[in-house]
Design a protein that fits this description.
By secondary structure, this protein is an alpha/beta fold. 32% of the residues lie in helices and 26% in strands. The protein has three domains: 2-179, Alpha-D-Glucose-1,6-Bisphosphate, subunit A, domain 3 (Alpha-D-Glucose-1,6-Bisphosphate, Chain A, domain 3, 3-Layer(aba) Sandwich); 184-406, Alpha-D-Glucose-1,6-Bisphosphate, Chain A, domain 3; 408-541, TATA-Binding Protein (2-Layer Sandwich). The chain is built from 18 helices and 27 strands. The strands form six sheets. Strands 2-6-5-3-4-9-8 form a seven-stranded mixed β-sheet, sandwiched between helices. Strands 20-21-24-25-26-19-27 form a seven-stranded antiparallel β-sheet. Helix 2 (32-42) packs across helix 3. The longest helix has 15 residues, at 62-76. The protein is globular, with a radius of gyration of 23 Å. The N and C termini lie far apart (52 Å). Bound molecules: 6-O-phosphono-alpha-D-glucopyranose (G6P) and zinc ion. 6-O-phosphono-alpha-D-glucopyranose binds at residues 17-18, 112, 320, 343-345, 362, 364, 366, 485-487, 495.
């Protein structure tokens, strides 16, 4: 029943920040997905007879690749596959299911917040038995394997009915089609005070959750509306569509602008939130206040003890390097560890597994905790709701008080998308070459205290990850970070992250872009963004 199929390697199957992402037509090339999946399996050991979890965000091409992955799991000797009904599993739900059922690992089919459709993006990512994204060592091995692969194994099992819950025999391997929401919703009930949140909704609390026609729709319907009693209509755009309704399922101020505008308007609900294609990102907007992901991490960490799952306190906080230092001040006050990792959720895995950190976050709209090994959009929203319910204050009040206590880290990210790869590389190389000469010099009256190319020394396994982004630190705590995105699928995306610390509450009400304008201009002086990219302004400001 199992066939060995000859194949030729592709040279471009290098996993990026979060798995292999390419345009759908690239994935549709003969054997492209098969090669990658086989390269994953060939890089693993000991999965014979074990369980593999498979699910995706429902985007175009999801079902086809899921069928292939199931047949290949059977062909390679897995004992069991757990797949979400309709091929659906949000990334955090997949992480949870891997952990809960002690699976060997999982394949998550998604390109996260990137658009979907016949000419848009698709992706495959492998998560290990701890529920987290494969570590670099493994993704490197997968890439190496993909360059020499000459065959893949696939069982002739026909199509599995992905829509019917229950067990199917697939050529000796058991396939279980599971409700994608149930286990996850149950986990959330153990972490948060659902009674308190329910009471808040009963009292007239209004919320808007934009699922962006992506995977969190069914999760939000079940948890917010059914279990927490939020009024029908709280979850919007809740039907997952293969092309996300033609939109970018990216919960930022550009792609979730309608929600933002509503939250800034006169009749704004009390709380607004959105999640991305695969459900791991979150956007949080209070009435007339946008909470940056960096601030959200800090505020959630400072208040997490109000939720039952975190009442014992936090073991530590971790954030990616470009994320603002707001959370550092919370860690300092709580007297707990603070860890600065490279961009990419996979770097948090060791800290979480080792019990060194409880809560993690990234500027890229990711927040999560040790309940799974992925960032988790709805989790962040529920923790916010729990905190709002316990404090009985608005998000704006909570933010204002937080800044008064800790000071405010003004923060913004400027993205230059689809820049010519060569120009972007040139900018980074040139900047790298000048790093040693920068400290001690001044730009626009601001003195540079230090500059480096961030390298991470993992305190758990001792591994070192170099070239993770260029940091220019100014005296007084301001900072500019330059980094090339690892998740784009065409050209290069240059990210400029700027941050300024303001301790004085009298200056906590400034417009963010204005508060940062000098710093932004200085960053351009230093790196020559306009000169290299030919762009007058960023494509996206968040
Ligand atoms: C994915 C990863 C995140 C990462 C983000 C931004 O969502 O899961 O951990 O922060 O990509 O990556 P990029 O390389 O595009 O800045
Ligand atoms: Zn995502």
């Amino acid at each position: 029943m199992t066939r060995t199929v000859e194949t030729k390697p592709f040279s471009d199957q290098k996993p990026g920040t979060s798995g292999l992402r390419k345009k759908v037509p690239v994935f549709q090339q003969e054997h492209y997905a098969e090669n990658f999946i086989q390269s994953v399996f060939d890089s693993l050991e000991g999965f014979q007879g074990q369980t593999l979890v498979i699910g995706g965000d429902g985007r175009y091409f999801n079902r086809e690749v899921i069928q292939t992955a199931i047949a290949m799991a059977a062909g390679n000797g897995f004992g069991r596959v757990i797949v979400g009904q309709g091929g659906i599993l949000s990334t955090p739900a997949a992480s949870h299911i891997i952990r809960k059922y002690k699976a060997f690992g999982g394949l998550i089919l998604s390109a996260s917040h990137n658009p979907g459709g016949p000419h848009e993006d698709f992706g495959i990512k492998y998560n290990a038995g701890n529920g987290g994204p494969a570590p670099e060592k493994l993704t490197d091995a997968i890439f190496e394997r993909s360059k020499t692969i000459s065959r893949f194994l696939i069982a002739d099992i026909g199509l599995v009915d992905l829509d019917r819950l229950g067990f199917v025999d697939a050529g000796g391997m058991e396939v279980e089609v599971v409700d994608p929401v149930a286990d996850y919703a149950e986990l959330m009930e153990t972490l948060f005070d659902f009674d308190a949140i329910r009471t808040m909704f009963k009292g007239g609390f209004r919320m808007a959750f934009d699922a962006m026609h992506a995977v969190t729709g069914p999760y939000a319907k079940e948890i917010l509306e059914k279990r927490l009693g939020a009024p029908a209509g709280t979850a919007r755009n809740f039907v997952p569509l293969p092309d996300f309704g033609g939109h970018h399922p990216d919960p930022n101020l550009v792609h979730a602008k309608a929600l933002y505008d509503e939250m800034m308007g006169d009749d704004a609900p009390d709380f607004g939130a959105a999640s991305d294609g695969d459900g791991d990102r979150n956007l949080v907007i209070g009435r007339s206040i946008f909470i940056t992901p960096s601030d959200s991490l800090a505020m959630l960490a400072a208040n997490a003890h109000l939720a039952p799952g975190y009442k014992a306190g936090l073991k530590g906080i971790a954030r990616s390097m470009p994320t603002s230092g707001a959370a550092d001040r919370v860690a300092e006050k709580l007297g707990i560890g603070m860890y600065e990792t490279p961009t990419g959720w996979k770097f948090f895995g060791n800290l979480l597994d080792a019990g060194m950190a409880t809560i993690c976050g990234e500027e890229s709209a990711g927040t999560g905790s040790d309940h799974v090994r992925e960032k988790d959009g709805l989790w962040a929203v529920l923790l916010w709701l729990n905190i709002l319910a316990m404090r009985g204050e608005s998000a704006r009040e909570i933010a204002t008080k937080h800044w008064a206590t800790y000071g405010r880290n003004y923060y913004s990210r400027h993205d230059y998308e689809e820049v010519e790869t060569e120009a972007a590389n040139r900018l980074m190389t040139e900047l790298r070459g000048r790093l040693a000469a920068l400290p001690g010099t001044a730009v626009r009256g601001m003195k540079i205290a230090a500059a480096d190319d961030f390298a991470y020394h993992d305190p758990v396994d001792g591994s070192v990850s170099k070239n993770q982004g260029i940091r220019v630190m100014f005296e007084g705590g301001s900072r500019a970070v330059f980094r090339l995105s690892g998740t784009g699928t065409s050209g290069a995306t240059l990210r400029l992250y700027v941050e300024r610390y303001e301790p004085d509450p009298a200056h906590h009400d400034l417009d963010t872009q204005e508060a940062l304008s000098e710093l932004i201009a200085a960053a351009d002086d230093i790196a020559g963004i306009r000169r290299h990219t030919g762009r007058e302004k960023p494509s996206v400001i968040t």
